[in-house]
Amino acid sequence: MVQLDERLGAIAQLVLESVQGKAAPCAADIGCDHGQLTAHLLERCENLSMIASDVSAPSLEKAKRLFAQKGFGRRAQTVVADGLAGIDRPVDVIVMAGMGAETILKIIREGREKIGEAALIMQANVDLPMLRTQLADHGFVIEKEAFSHAAGRRYVTMLARAGKARAIGEREALLGTAVQGIGSEGQYGYFAWQRSVRVREMETVAGLASEKAKERMEKNSREMTWISEAMSMNTCTVRELERLVGEIAPYELAEEWDNVGLLLGRAGNAVTRVLTALDLTDSVIAEAKALGAQAIVTHHPIMMDARRRLTDSDREGRLMLALAENGIAHIAAHTNFDSAGGGVNDTLMALMGAKDVKGEGCLRVGTLEEGVTFDQLCERAKKKLHAAVRAYGAPDTVVTKLGCCSGAGGGFFFEAKALGADCFITGEIKHHIALEAMAAGVCVIEAGHFETENPACEVMANALQNACDALKYNVTVFCSKGNPFGR
Asked: How do residues 449-470 score in pLDDT, each as one tens digit?
């Protein structure tokens, strides 16, 4: 039997449900391409006949060969046609998949008289809200929506028929049958994916001041709220967010001198949006405000030194006042995230291509692929970290073991060397330590404090989102894309 992926399988299931109990049903596969869906349906339903049409003659030839190989004979009629022009008799089902909503709607408008009472089974790859709205405008009622996942994308397959349709609003056009709540895990996964699409869009426009950018932000924010409501998620508090950060980067791993955990904010306040960033800055707070975030999780903490007063006379005081005035909590994961498995330094090693990584605390040492040179590693650091590196060592030196400590980690060079590293990457290294490395024949890449640590902010964002999703918390996590140094 012809095997289908989950996407085409969802279509096939709705077709079979639509023709069940009919003596001699007929279906049309519009834009049939390779013909695998048609072939699968003909195999599954022995009394079914199908019209397989496509505007591309070469594509239809592939379908013809498949049908001949399967011995379908007259049960499979092929025709080169645009839209519904190839339908020459009443059909029970019309399938339109693998095309945009505009194309589907155009086909419906131009072939309206051929649809009759047939079930329309549609799988649009873009513009689903527009499809739902205009189907209603054209007198079609969506009876069912099925959710599937294939090749990294989520799909909605709709079944609609002509009927007494009502106008639908923007919210229902976005959510479809999920307006009253999630009906399946597939549906939940689809909305989680849709939420991630809006996260990327909102991160892109958060720092822009144009009216168009503000409109896009408001639209995405509104849709994100609707999606979260439809997913029937649980409430998360600042206290619970702090706990989740601590599971990702255990607080007990922090150095004694460090300042981590919840540093500012009301622990019992609800959180629906979170922004991760390397540093707390004016621009990060502005981004959090634009995104509607109630909490910021940074790597570098505030209040590393004792404060006797909190005023706007210094940078940190101004930042803390801005947080308080806007009801934004601040959580820090600093040296605990440096040391945590999968944290800052493991992220840096992964970007540099190191394998079999070992180490304790902030230090990591791992092996590199055979034959890689110091010059190639420097180029890799420039590309992966978006860094302007300073290189200490001969370009053609072959490197076998890489050590790292991100940020101001140059002092860990000696420990890395003791573990066999013949190259060491860090954010900052003191002059005399770089001289020691050169004398010992160990290459050093100085790639910048910000550049060696910032990639881990996205790791924290993803880990937090996964943790919140597992608990079905109504939390969306964003990652700041800004650079405080303007690069």
From this structure: 999 999 999 999 999 999 999 9
Q: Which two tokens stand for residue 185?
A: 């895990």
DSSP annotation of 118 reads P
The dihedral built from the CA positions of residue 270, 273, 275 and 280, taken in this order, carries a sign that is: negative
CA distances from 100 to 120, 126, 135, 150, 230 (A): 15, 5, 14, 17, 25
Question: Distance from first CA to last CA of the chain, Å, rounded?
Answer: 56
Question: Minimal CA–CA distance to 44: which of 70, 73, 62?
Answer: 70
CA 403/CA 426 separation, integer angstroms:
9
CB contact set of 425 (below 8 Å; sequence gap of 6+): 348, 352, 377, 381, 402, 403, 404, 444, 445, 447, 452
DSSP 223-234: HHHHHHHHTTPB
The single-letter DSSP state of residue 366 is E
Reading phi first (left if > 0) and then psi (alpha if -120 to 50, else beta), residue 160 is in: beta
Other CB atoms within 10 A of residue 433 CB: 19
Q: How many CA atoms does the CB half-sphere of 224 hold within 13 Å?
A: 24
Q: Please name the helix (run of DSSP H) or strand (run of DSSP E) that holds residue 17, with its range, or none.
A: helix 6-19
Cα dist from 74 to 67, 78, 295, whole Å: 10, 10, 64
Structure confidence by residue, pLDDT tens digits, 295-348? 999 999 999 998 999 999 999 999 999 999 999 999 999 999 999 999 999 999
Amino acid at residue number 60? L
Q: Is 477 left (phi over 0), alpha (psi -120 to 50) or beta?
A: beta
Q: Is the pTM of this model over 0.85?
A: no
Cβ atoms of 275 and 284 closer than 8 Å: yes
Q: Which two tokens stand for residue 228?
A: 């979260």
